Amino acid sequence: MNYTPAARIIFRNRGRRTDRWRDHGTEIQLSQLRWLLFRGATAEYGRTHMFEEVLRSSDPVKAYAATVPLVQYEDLRPLVMRMTDGEADVLWPGHCHNFAQSSGTSGGRSKYIPITSESLKVNHFPGSSDVVAQYLRHFPESRLFAGKGLILGGSFETRLHPKGHNVKVGDLSATLIDMIPEMANAFRVPDKKTALLADWNVKLDLLARAAIGADITNISGVPSWFLRVIRHALEISGRDYAYELWPNLEVFFHGGISFEPYRAEYERLCDPSKMHYFETYNASEGFFATQASRQNDGMLLLIDRGIFYEFLPLDATPDTTPLGVDEVEPGHVYEMIISSCNGLWRYRIGDTVEVTSVNPVKIRVAGRTHSFINAFGEELMESNADQAIAEASRITGAQVRNYTAGPLYACGNRKGRHQWLIEWEGNPPADTTAFASALDSALKEVNSDYAAKRGGNIFLDSPEIITLPTGSFDRWLAHQGSGKLGGQRKIPRLHNDRTIIDDLLQFGD
């Protein structure tokens, strides 16, 4: 039975509410800040930073910026650890029973993000509903609820041993699946037990077999990992294309990493006459944005979901005041800062976003604040790398499964250059030199600083490609710690030093 018409009625107002954001974004964000400060004032952090006084000021936004410092995770780690041990009223009022273990793409210690009951009710679950509402609104022909969704879940596997009563630590997706309303399970596969399995090698086969026997209309997950599931399902079934297994498949709700390096392969496997690709921005720290148009012109920032946003220009000095949603400009890249109902106050999440439009604000993820290469003045960002990898793959016909890159400094007669470690999908190209040339040309097109440094091979030599054996990135992820390997884990793309590059090379031997 097709439940989509009924679902469209249910989700209609949820999708339309965003229309008023064009004229009322500032006041909506102010109301979010007031609510957060009011709720957080009774917790230790709120008392220490005088939330009640900030609320009583004539300009709460200005007072908040002047009173509460910008922080990174390490500033909050001792407070979060007290919460995992069961202490109440630390960053947010009450006890917190769920914590999302981050993927640790920076290579440091894992982060444990509080997932409060408010963040589930106000942000994470409603954010997922916003995605569906926007999709149904802009694709009236959809039959989304005529079949089932295939979702990649994480697990609760972790090396942290919390002392708090009934405290669970794992991937955000594991928490969401564990607590999803029972009615929603009727529209998704696999079953909860399979979705929460920790052993990815066992889970992959069960996921694929569960999907083969279902009428899948939509898939949700990280592009690189989902491609593994699709390929395994095709291998088991003896089919060549995803549309042979799932003729009613119409949309991939994707996020976590850039889709561009994988787009060509998805378009080859899926029916281009009916398949859509819908981007989301759902992190452990919060559900921030969703695509809100047929063509992705940037993701709509969700400004009424329990988060107050600030944006810091990349050339900011210690005295720079971050900007609000009413102050950002299209075409500019900012570091995104959040204050949210999981107790993260003026928190630097480590992501940079490009504002594509305002009134309402739409964004694209530009990369991580620490994910870049500027060893030679080239200022190469993660978004540049993703675009260039996609273009080089298109030109050469190669398929990249995973990649990462870092600087290789001048030695002997060789000038400095970028070293790219690539794991290919299937057989590697017969000539990686051609891929390196196409990659180099594409990087020059998307980044003028890189093009200038490559001019005449004076400052920077051409890229060096190193092929890693199949499974190298998986072995590296698994080595990072318990729970690292799985459908929500991401490969760090760019590094301004050789720490991760040299580490990964050991797993390619």
Question: What does this molecule look like?
Answer:
With 509 residues, the chain is of the alpha/beta class. The model is unreliable at 104-108 (pLDDT under 50). The chain contains 18 helices and 19 strands. The longest helix is centred in the N-terminal third of the chain and has 22 residues, at 117-138.
Keywords:
509 residues; alpha/beta; 11-stranded mixed beta sheet; 18 helices; 20% strand; single chain
Q: What's the alpha carbon Rg, rounded to whole Å?
A: 23 Å
The end-to-end distance, rounded to whole angstroms, is: 52 Å
In terms of per-residue confidence, which ranges show pLDDT below 50 for 5 or more consecutive residues? 104-108
Shape: globular
What share of the residues lie within helices?
Answer: 25-40%
Average of per-residue pLDDT values: 90
Helix run count: 18
Oligomer: single chain
| Class computed from helices, strands and strand pairing | alpha/beta
Sheet-strand content, in percent, reads 15-25%
Q: Main β-sheet: number of strands, strand sense, barrel status?
A: 11 strands, mixed
Widest sheet, order of strands: 5-3-6-7-8-9-10-14-13-12-11
- The number of strands is 19
Question: Summed up, what is this model?
Answer:
This protein has 18 helices and 19 strands. With 509 residues, the chain is α/β, with parallel strands linked by helices.
